[in-house]
Amino acid sequence: MSKQPRFKTPRRHPPKNSASSQKDPVGVYCRIRPLGVEDEECCIDVISGTTIQLRAPEALRARAYRNGESKETQYSFRKVFGVSISQIELFEDVAKPLIDDLVHGKNGLLFTYGVTGSGKTFTMTGSPGQGGLLPRAINMLFNSISPYQAKRYVFKADEKNGIDIQNEIDALLERQRRENQTSVPKTPSSRQKLDPEFGDMIQPEEAFMVDGVDDDCSYGVFVSFIEIYNNYIYDLLEETSEDTFQPKAPQSKILREDQNHTMYVAGCMEVEVKSAEEAFQVFWRGQKKRKVANTRLNTESSRSHSVFVIKLAQAPLDADGESILPDKSQVVVSQLCLVDLAGSERTGRTGAEGSRIREAGNINQSLLTLRTCIEVLRENQICGTNKMVPYRDSKITHMFKNYFDGEGKVRMVVCVNPKADDYEESLLVMRFAEMTQEVEVARPIDRPICGLTPGRRHRNQAFKEELSQRLNERGGPTDKGLLSTINMLSTHSLPTLPLCELSDPHDDITLPRLIEALESRQRYRLMVIEEYSKAANFMKSMLQDLGNNIVSNENFFHEQNGKLFERDNVIEENKAEILRLEKRTKMQEHKINLLQNITNVYEKEKGTLFQELETREQRLQNELSEKRQMEQSMKGKVTDTQHKWERECERRVNAKELEMRNQLWVKDEKLKQLKDILKEGKTSTHPEPPPRQTRPQRLFTEERTPAKRSSSPTPLPGCSISVEMRAGSKMGPAYEHRVIPKRRKP
């Protein structure tokens, strides 16, 4: 189902092999419940036979228009059933093809989905005079196979999701044993014996039949009825204790996998039914045990998911067309699961409290798991991924995983309530239905029943009719006993008398003929009497021998009775031991179920912890990588700074050395000048007084650092100091030193 203005569907990958093309999408149908009397605003419009339009209520629509959004969306289904569609029209389009497939050996799954109060239970079960999908499916099945059903207990469930075949003698003994038990309900003979709450579901003129039923097979129908409450499976047909003071709580069942990798409920009671009335009684007996409660939105709200399973076993007849072939490998078992899902709900609207909150939470969680499985299946099929579908997260999805992974038709009826209060929930239901119709399920394969010549039962019936017709033409049916056969032979085997009319007293022909005929008749009579006497004597001797044997065997019979009594005691002890072991097994299964639930919780916690650990490890790896990057960047900065300071120190050392050299040179020059002055003073013993002059000026042009005044000039880095002497007076030469920049080498 595609929602037209919503989003663009991803491109599908081409099929890898021919088997992948043999798939059909899940059939999704929509049924709209009539608007209630107290409801005023409707949020669903039927556009066509396959399309509806969902529009928001006035308040939301006005807000959306102010924001420039659209609150009207169209959804497409395989077919849309409006408020005027009857139950029979819904059944003919949705469930009738599934019954055809069931009779022809194919599986099927039909479930109703929607919010609470949307009409799911009415669609599945119906009401008196308006039967739903389930009673009409049962009625159509028995209308089709009633003439070809096997006797009761010829087919027998093996408690491993399989069917065994018993011979007619064992089946007769089991029927007698079951009839002696008062706990087994007898089959109702007419509709007047049905429960008045469930009677008159189907009108006689609304009978459907399957075309092409194989009349060379015998059929047996088994039904089972379970519910999934708080994610536990309970058998609704299991007989519980009637003790009012200490009622026995029902035991939960577990799911197992058979040899064909098909999921089934272990220990679930499968009842063989022979008529639609009996199947209705079984269903209604379990329906009364189903968990329902009164909420603010629905007076009888389903608090559990119910699953009614119809299992059909068919086996071919022998070459004569009279008895069933005693070959289990030739038995074909097909089943149809009719599922009434509990409705999703919001506790704020239903006003749930206490245990109702827990029930609603489990219902919503199971429906969320179903939506998750459908979403993962859709993603795997469309995008070509191989993600694991979480079937085991819920009992309802784990039970029906074979229908999505294996063969069988899957159909869903989406029930919606058009009132404005359910707009938000209906929007989620439409999105789920849109996603479901994009999931494809493998197409069922036709299974041949047997390769014998067809028409065996029909030819056998025709031969019996012809034989009875011939007997009627010969004077009606006769007894096949020994005495009647002998009387018939003796009557018709006597020689006929010749004509006895005498016309001439000298006739020598008629009388000898008559005498000869009478003598032959007399001889024949004597022979018959002799044979009869011999047979009588033989019978007398046989009776005497039989009497003697009876007398002689009385002691043997007493001994055998004693042995039988002892064996009966042993059997009773074994039965008691079996009951004890069964109770212990059930207790162990219950413990296993509890441990499995605890294991699931621990696995979830383990998964959460693993996910948290992976997140922390990823975070730690990111921090380590950031730390390594920071260390590398810091090492680079330290190296750059170290090189920079090394160059600066080298430059300063060079400058200081140059400065010291200049200072030493200046001191040397001063010392030379002083030496020259001293030498001149020694040579002139009577020196003339020096002429009076002004204080010699010191022509120093030097730069000092502002931080500290120095008596010696401090050259700039990269400069050399040269001192230039000029001639002055004899008393003291004047000198100056200039700061001459030193050219750097290129």
Question: How many E strands?
Answer: 25
Radius of gyration: 55 Å
Shape label: elongated
- CATH hierarchy class name of the largest domain: Alpha Beta
Distance linking N and C termini: 83 Å
CATH domain topology of the largest domain: Kinesin
| CATH architect. name of the largest domain | 3-Layer(aba) Sandwich
Topology, please?
Blueprint: E1 23-25, E2 27-32, E3 44-46, E4 51-55, H1 58-66, E5 72-76, E6 79-81, H2 87-94, H3 96-103, E7 108-113, H4 120-124, E8 126-127, E9 130-131, H5 133-145, E10 155-157, E11 163-165, H6 168-180, E12 217-229, E13 232-235, E14 254-257, E15 263-266, E16 271-273, H7 276-287, E17 292-293, E18 301-302, E19 305-316, E20 332-340, H8 347-350, H9 355-383, H10 395-399, H11 401-405, E21 409-416, H12 423-436, E22 440-442, H13 456-473, H14 482-493, H15 510-683, E23 699-700, E24 719-725, E25 735-741
Parallel strand pairs: 2-6, 2-21, 7-20, 7-21, 23-25
Antiparallel strand pairs: 1-22, 3-4, 4-5, 8-9, 10-11, 12-13, 12-16, 12-19, 14-15, 17-18, 19-20, 24-25
